[in-house]
Records
---
Amino acid sequence: MRAVELKGKKVVLIDQTKLPDRLKTLECLTVEDVARAIEGMKIRGAPAVGIAGAMGLAIAALGSKGKTKREILKDLKRAAARLRRTRPTGADLFTRLERVVGVAERAKGSAEEVRRAVVMEVKCIVREVDETDRTLGTIGAKLIRDNDTVLTHCNAGWLATGGGYGTALAAVRMAKEEGKRVRVIATETRPLLQGARLTAWELKRDGINVTVITDNMVGYCLSNRMVDLVMVGADRILKDGHVINKIGTYTIAVAAKRHRIPFYVVAPLSTFDPKSEVREVKIEERDRREIEEIFGKRVLPRGVKTLNPAFDITPPDLVTAIVTERGIVYPPFRKKIPEILRTP
Ligand code: MRU
């Protein structure tokens, strides 16, 4: 099962808003369908959003009536602009769109050649993601000892990468495959409950021991030594080691530092943004109804103000290490991240 797939001229994805009650797929026939699926969190998780975006470009290329390379490129760029407007914080979307548009620009020959180049690049990205998930898992599992309890936040599993293993959850899966006994504490992750709905669903299906807590129980679990290490994914990582991830990650990192519990981030290189400074990162602000309502039922008095940032920023001094497919990066991040990004 895959979170998102390109099937002919369609993007088929698991509608993650319906989990865990229903395992339902959704077919996107147009770029607009893909954009709306991303905005509506039907597909989510930075790497999976990146893949969906790339597949959106494949649909644009295949559906374009363009007869020349120039005409197809015009359609592709329009599609990329629409997809870029969906979610502003995760880096993968921008990395993937840039890569696919770049390939189309460099493609030689006819409109048909451009279409073929785009589809081949998207398939190549999918293969890479599978391989990367596996490598992240193998490397990340080294940080997990037999009998450890890992605290994770949001969903950094295969639903979030589109690959077979995920990022932070790939490490847990590999540790289990290696025969280690491993337990997971998953935060429910309000407002959209990706931890309760998705992480718990993924892990239960794999027979991994998972306990769900509400977000405000993290301090209790850490201070009572119920957690050996924290492992989370990331939506964007800057060259100086700032980690942008699901809202609440920063709070967990602060508490982990207070209790001297290692705080690890597991992320592919496609999530790194070597260009931006922390002040330039745009934190997505989502619809107030996500706070006002729980499953369609209003829980706030009318007229009360809300705040709904989808992500927060964890500064480098709270991060013990970052697991990438090229190895584990330890501080000083300002020196080590550019080095790992340069390594071929
Ligand atoms: O808003 P979401 O559900 O897309 O946020 C997802 C997260 O924050 C994940 O933890 C992150 O993308 C890492 S996933 C491999």
---
Amino acid sequence: MPLLRSAFIALSTNKPLRRFSESSSLGRRLSSRFVAGLEIDDALRIAESLNNRGFLVSLDSLGESVTSEEEAQQSAGIYHLLLEEIKSRGLRANISVKLTQMGLELDPELAMKIAVGLTEHCRATGSFLRIDMEGSQLTQVTLDLVRHLNAREEFRGHIGIVIQAYLHRSEADIRQLIDEGIRVRLCKGAYQEPASVAFAKKQDTDINYVRLAGMLLASPIYHGLATHDEVMIEAAKSFAQHNNIGPESFEFQMLYGVRRDLQRRLLREGYNVRVYVPFGREWYPYFMRRLAERPANVLFLVRNFFRN
Ligand code: FDA
């Protein structure tokens, strides 16, 4: 299985396959299990329907590693539009953004300027900007940017970050983020990382996830636990129960189309559940990372494809 995981992660950066997949109707049909659609309206429609069923939502306009300032500004424009729509439709939704989509690798100043604009818009509309975490070469710069913004009084509570349990450094990062009052989404981590920075064994990542989730739950800040792993979820639930931490003081987060049964069950049990809803034309790298997490999804998709 680790071999298949690496193969899908390697394929996620394959440009010709990406060009072919994103422009073919077959590719789009297959990806629709995990991607809400190509257009903003598709995502908003799905967000509305998830809200009606009791779920919170985070909207993600797909795309990463832009190659010009113009592209970065276009990506930011989509998020500004989303924030307006979230407000005017009264959606219980926030936005998730990748800094490489905001030009981080071209010019960190540009990414900072765009992030400031988005956080300002979130503050004005009562929303929240979650900065996704990417590969480990970007961990420090991402943390620095979020900490810098959160240090501004008016932005507090409107910006948060993601921490990956597979990184050795995450415990220290979480300590500091809690000290600074920054909201964290904890996930296991979706990128291929060397053993020098990340746990090589899944079991070690899982142990770390449970430890970090405990630290977050015990803090007075509203955090998100992003996982579909029932062992992680049960550990978090039991930690919260033993420490009298009410279900209103944190949320579980899961990806659109993944473990929908579990999403519904947690909601029924009274937990806050946020569904991460990705949409857009640049769905290929995101989709391949989902296959990497569970190569059996390929069989699942193919079976459903022929059934429809
Ligand atoms: P794990 O991979 O161990 O899977 C546990 C079980 O969950 C599997 O046995 C299976 O049943 C189910 N499952 C997991 N993935 C599935 C899939 N794709 N299809 C079907 N079933 C699946 N990563 C990152 O590096 N940066 C980020 O910013 C984010 N953001 C983020 C937001 C949200 C809301 C979620 C849920 C996840 C992320 N991730 C992420 C991805 C995360 O790091 C991780 O790769 C996936 O969540 C898979 O890990 P699990 O914790 O689900 O456990």
